[in-house]
Amino acid sequence: MSLDHLSAEVRAEVERTRAVVAALHAELPRWGLVVWTAGNVSQRVRVPSGDDLLVIKPSGVTYDELTPEAMVVCDLEGNLLEGTRAPSSDTAAHAYVYAHMPEVGGVVHTHSTYATAWAARAEPVPCVLTMMADEFGGDIPIGPFALIGDDSIGRGIVETLRESRSPAVLMRNHGPFTIGTDAKAAVKAAVMVEEVARTVHISRQLGEPLPIEAHHVDSLYDRYQNVYGQGSAPTSGITPAPTTTSATDKEQQR
Ligand SMILES: O=C(CO)[C@@H](O)[C@H](O)COP(=O)(O)O
């Protein structure tokens, strides 16, 4: 397969995305989110026909080798379209997310230590920090156990995140998957999920962390997502689905 049938504009966008995704892979070891080759970043390439593509790293290649040319290009069924090496083993999961969440433009997976420790216990990280309310809009949820290789992980991610404002899900016994409007936003969510998982873990060593009232969670989330920064901060930017139950709604239902 090749991308020859695509327009020059789309092929140029693929080249630009290769550079973005390669550079963002270097952020994973820089922020201490991965060991060896254990994590991956992808970004969607929108194609006018609707047959979008994704750019992701090849499987099992060390981070210092991940140049733009080393990236591979797949369709949203996970088929390799361009590249000489096997795509990341999590490609099917990334592809499923793009296929079922059109608003998502970037996906990241790591096995970062503290977030994965919560995933191993299948315990959501409770929203006890303003930083969590800002970025995640509530607890960081747990997704189901799923084996690698087919779309089970992708289904678990989508089912879990559709019920939440969080751009991060901790897949049970596995680790965090994060989403964003682009790969940079998803990398930011991966950095934040590890940070808050670590802080809440440490806090629990000291005693029981105090929850934040639901209306304060809503207020913090709204400010951070819509007002914070210079207007282009890489918040997740994902608009929650209408079915999402806000923290205030949940509080009122009690
Ligand atoms: O969980 C797994 C494999 O068990 C993966 O997340 C790897 O840790 C990274 O795989 P590649 O992206 O290098 O295929």
TrEMBL record:
Lineage: Bacteria, Bacillati, Actinomycetota, Actinomycetes, Micrococcales
Gene source species: Flavimobilis marinus
Reactions that this protein is recorded to catalyse: L-ribulose 5-phosphate = D-xylulose 5-phosphate
InterPro entries found in the cross-reference section: Aldolase_class_II_sugar_metab, Aldolase_II/adducin_N, Aldolase_II/adducin_N_sf
Domain Class II aldolase/adducin N-terminal: 19-201
UniProt feature, compositional bias: Polar residues: 231-247
Record-level Gene Ontology MF annotations: aldehyde-lyase activity; L-ribulose-phosphate 4-epimerase activity; metal ion binding
GO cellular component: cytosol
Entry keywords, A to Z: Metal-binding, Zinc
Record EC number: 5.1.3.4
Record-linked NCBIfam families: PRK06557.1
Superkingdom as given in the UniProt entry: Bacteria
GO terms (BP aspect): pentose catabolic process
Region described as Disordered: 231-254
Pfam families assigned: Aldolase_II
Family: Belongs to the aldolase class II family. AraD/FucA subfamily.
Protein's recorded name: L-ribulose-5-phosphate 4-epimerase
Cofactor requirements of the protein: Zn(2+)
